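Why TonB-dependent receptor? Reviewers of the renewal asked for a concrete example.
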Amino acid sequence: MAACMLPTAALAQLPPAEPEVETEGQTSPSAGAEAPLADGALPTPGTGDAGEIVVTGTRLSVTGFTAPTPTTVIGEEQIAANAQPNIFTTIAQLPSLQGSSGTQVNTFSTSSGQQGLSSFSLRGVGAIRTLTLLDGQRVVGANVTGVPDISLFPQLLVRRVDVVNGGASASYGSDAVGGVVNFITDTRFRGIKGNIQGGITNYGDDAQGLVQLAVGDSFLDDRLHIVASAEYGKEQGVGGGEFGIELANGRDWFVQTTLINRGVLNDGAPQYLVRDFAQSTTFTKYGLITAGPLQGTAFDEAGNPFQFQYGSNGVPARNAAGTVIGCYPGFCLGGDLSGNVDAGRSLKSRIGRLNTYARIGYEIAPENELYLTLNVGQVKTSNQPVNGQNRPGLTLQCANPYVPASVQAACAAAGITSFQYGTSNAALGNTRVHTDRRLYRLVVGATGQFQAAGTAWNYDAYYERGANYTDIDVNNILLSPRFNQAIDAISENGAIVCRNPAARAAGCQPLNIIGGNPSEAALRYIMPENGPFQRTRQTQDVVSVSLSGSPIDLWAGPLAIAVGAEYRHEFYTVRADPYGAGFAATPPNADYPADPVLLAGGNNWYAGNYKNGSGAYSVKEGFFEANLPLISSKAAGNANINGAVRLTDYSTSGKVWAWKIGGTWDLPIDGLKLRAVTSRDVRAPNLSELFAAPVTTTLPNFFDPFRNTNVLVIQNTIGNTELTPEIARNTTAGITLANPSWLPGLSLSFDYYTLKIKDVISSIAPADIVQLCFQNVLPETCDVFNLNNSAGPNFINVQAFNLASIDTEGFDIEASYRWQRPLGLPGSFVLRGLATHVIKYVTDTGLPGTIPTDTAGNNLGATPHWKWLAIQSYENDRFSLLVQERWFSSGTIGNQYVVCQTNCPASTAARPTIDDNRIRGAFYVDLGGTYNLTDQITAYVKVDNLFDRSPARSTIFNNPALYDQLGRVYRAGVRFKF
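Here is what the prediction returned.
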């Protein structure tokens, strides 16, 4: 394991620590080591008094050394006290983690493959720029972006989690741009321990169950060490609500908030309006005629026509454009809201996970071990992206036999033969997406020490083979070409049939979308039982060797060095169904018969048009790290310089250098330390960016500025093998105060950081592609989309380039105080606080004519200006109490907007005008407690979001990466250890 190892005997000599993160009080360290450990370090799991300290963030091994990069540690007591069904949630609460995913994120998605994926994002730069390790080793990705799924980690044996807040590419390689999250397991656990937990929300949903068991022991004179664990967890999730604005199980905070584009740029009023209870004028639950002489005629479930109730006292203009007088473009306020579909998105994905883990280690000599680790895990998730399968912009013939006679007569009287139509397709039911991720991971390694040239050297060598299999299946979703043929019905020889003879010959069944009574045959025709699927296999092979020691004693202490080399090979292959991927791209499949109605090239599904693909790359790299002690005296304190360099050779893009240089200075002032580090970090393009199987996403309400209307668009995302690594510059400088003699138990730290990333791999957003063409800023983008495609579906092609840059700046504050025997009571009282302030987060697309955007404080994104976590806990030998507060500041919809109500300046793409740009923040309070039934058995309870705080405005303003959507959650359980 790559680590900084410190003998226990040196604990009392360590410089003061940066504060640890704790969610309940811990018993104090033993005498002689009462000060918190350096940089949050904890004793190596299970080693007891003879153990060492392992600190993530450096590859050096030297007594008394602390790395200059700030590191936060969460111990197993804190993890247990937070009582979450998934350790991911506990870690993601840290303020420096911004934009992490999880079971409440990506629930609107059908095609991303990231539903239910739990992955970390440090500094808001994304999960792909945060390196997550298990015992200092890489884990094969659970998605083609390369990020692992924390739900697949062996959680009960995790002794602590180190969070390195800063670049670490020189030490750990690619992806460590935002930082590193390292899970450290207990490799010397002895005994049996377990956990049984259940939970439920205040609304009676998201029922949770968790069962965990771990065993371990040593044999053969304490030379053979075996640990194993197994756990099963299930969270029912929170499904979609009803059509309209009713969320699941009585949640009342959803108000269909919509950002309305008036489409007028210079009339003194704002272009964009934020409005609640918005209702589209382009569809209803069971169908609406949206333009022409019959505009405003809606249909109930039985297919009976009635006059639709527009909000805003809107009156249909009955023109070809579908204007509603008194309403905004595309939307009215209030009225009949029953057809809105957004409340149908799952608020939390259902998840079930089964993990097994085993490690066998044998000491071939004292302090020299051969080991084998095996992880096998499975995670299944499911979500509902939205209610219905919304289809605005349809054309129906008046002669369609499903059109009521009264409407046919009105057509004749008006002299029309067809009309524009939109429906939520409520009668078709709701789509479900199911994912199944399976991890198989084997590590064989050797670690230990040897003497050479009078120096003790630490070595670590391992081979890792990881494989992840991801299956995605989508149920109850329509084939768009078949739908289009099925709704075009005629009467022939007294029977209702599809108009197209070729479609009829291929089995077309006419579909009634007037109301909610489609035939079973029609449903099976447009939504076959075998829906979209994707089968992905990813593999990762790693060979790593590192060596560290202190070969020279200098004037201020030993010179410590570390060297190492690593080889890594990443591979993936994916295959999909022929209706999505294309018939030529897939072998014949009886479950997906060819059909002349369908597009041979694929993209036939309403959503979930997965593609076939494969790709691989290899990495060869070597690193060198050194720590040079500069000062060691009572008068001047202790100071050192730490540096590292790494050369990496990517098979796809060639060689690139990463480096860091920093140092710490323990001042001759009681408990005070300075630290600073600057680094050049890299992130290589991942498999998805290089070799992405073209992913197709449906954008059902895409705004077309050329025709000032919403259209259905297919977004095709494709790879780019010409990508090069991103290059980042990280700089951190801070000061810490730990355990001063004038107030033992106090720890404080302040760290300022800047992070600048250039050559950022990013895709131009579909809306930006269209706008850049529409405004003639980048005419080349006009060649990659068609929004009025008569030959097939409307489409936009999206591809990644090294165009953008990110420039972020801020600071972290951590504080803790442990009060032993408060007010003479037995036990200890602990205060903890962590905060991150994002001063700026500027993204430059690199496109001509565009202005960099600062998203710091944009609460639709990942970086609110302020985010903090505070904990107060008391514990003694019998019980413990915990109070935890989580808060982030109010923010904006977007910092680019100009807020005004009247006398507004001209609205531009760079500085659009808006009437309301504020999104409130959130403050959550959690309570918890434990009671020791015996010395081996502890009962516990936890209440999250005690005051049932609702999220901010929704839909477009609800960010589940920040806001809690579930409400109050109750959990209780029992832990045991023998």
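Confidence is low (pLDDT under 50) at residues 1-54. This is the kind of structural detail the renewal will allow us to pursue systematically.
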